[in-house]
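Attaching the record inline, Q. Sequence:
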Amino acid sequence: MSLVERLRAAIAAPPPFDLLAGDLVEDSDAPLRPAAVLVAITRRPEPGVLLTVRREHLRTHAGQIAFPGGRIDPEDRDAAAAALREADEEIGLPPSAVTLWGSADRYRTVTGYEVTPVLGEIAPDLALAPHEAEVADWFEAPLAFLLDPANQRLMSADFRGQRRHYYEIPWEGRRIWGATAAMLVNLSRRLGPWT
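Structure, as predicted:
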């Protein structure tokens, strides 16, 4: 069974017990705001995942690597619709170009969002156009590399007087960390023992 087939089966199965639930939340009494991201997997012999680099001037997560995505708006039918809308807005990925597989496990961010990763497959080498105000760059990283636990480093740092643990996945001089890395770790854990 290929990695893609395993991943599709894994998101349809009950979740394992060791998934990451989320980061520290600034105000634990505040309701979490719903958001969604698109985990767009390229249809290649060695599949990749599309990731964006956020602009440095943005108010939150400036300069970080992320999946295309954002807040679920009232007019969005569901998390999948929001993820597709955001991917279209951020990198010019038409919703019609995505074959949806389903959603994975929600992840709570330090900024108070509950993010639903929506997985889907796309053709390779699509002509994408990043939104100038939001996205500095985009790239494709190998799915197998991102999901391999050997490449997922557990890190720690002090944050608002507390020790915070997070994952980081370095790839070709890029630092994938925080919620994006955590969602990849969760997908990896759904696959079970890495072979």
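The domain at 3-189 is CATH 3.90.79.10 (Nucleoside Triphosphate Pyrophosphohydrolase). The radius of gyration is 16 Å.

More tomorrow.
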